Amino acid sequence: MTEALALVIAYLLGSIPSGYLAGRARGIDIRTVGSKNMGATNVFRTLGKGIGIGVMAADIAKGVLAVVIARLITDDPWPLVAAGMAIVGHVFPVWLRFKGGKGVATGAGVILGLTPIPFAILFAGWVAIVAATRIVSIASITCAAAYPVLVWVFGGGLAEIVFAVVVSAGVIFLHRKNIARLARGDELRIDLPGRRAKAR
């Protein structure tokens, strides 16, 4: 019974539409502006850096909480399953007709909850790539690909490695349109202090 409760809580946490709610607070439906995605990157680009960072923090917190709660009320391997459910909730939120974001920030949250050292490495790499390229999708795709490798390097068991591979594949698949734009050379960039964003 507690296992089912942990999964339901994880899904409902993941499905909290932070970006959508932030937009609505400003009178904007984030799904109709910019890239039309409700993730933190689109919020950052269209509503401002402060709100975008806040949405990213909220999405990361959803993933962490899902893992922490599952660990408090269940045993292995259920925290892993709950982590997956939090990501599913973000990508397919019940509140928005199952049309959500790409799961990167919530995925980062579950990685932080499950494996803090790989998270620290991935987060540092993500920040460095975004700073160098101003293209968030490159950073997200690169870190997704590196995640299973880091789990293996730091001694993750078979279940953890399989989970990492599934999450990695899912994130990369959800970025397929970004990959196509990258190939064409017209992927959106974000504006960073002292640097001007590329107009699409």
| Tally of helical segments | 10
Number of domains: 1
Structural class estimated from helices and strands: mainly alpha
Beta-sheet strand percentage?
under 5%
End-to-end C-alpha gap: 50 Å
Q: What is the residue-mean pLDDT, rounded to a whole number?
A: 91
Shape: globular
Low-pLDDT parts are 195-200
Tell me the quaternary state. single chain
Series of H and E elements:
HHHHHHHHHH
Largest sheet: none
Find the count of extended strands (DSSP E, 2+ residues).
0
Instruction: Give the fraction of residues assigned to helices.
Output: over 70%
Radius of gyration: 16 Å
Characteristics of this structure?
200 residues; mainly alpha; disordered C terminus
Protein described:
The protein is mainly α. The chain has one domain (2-184). It is 70% helix and 0% strand. It contains 10 helices and no strands. The chain has helices at 2-14, 18-25, 40-47, 49-73, 78-91, 104-114, 116-133, 136-153, 158-174, 176-184. Helix 2 (18-25) runs parallel beside helix 3, helix 3 runs antiparallel to helix 4 (49-73) and helix 7 (116-133) packs antiparallel against helix 8. It is globular, with a radius of gyration of 16 Å. The N and C termini lie far apart (50 Å). The relative contact order is 0.12.
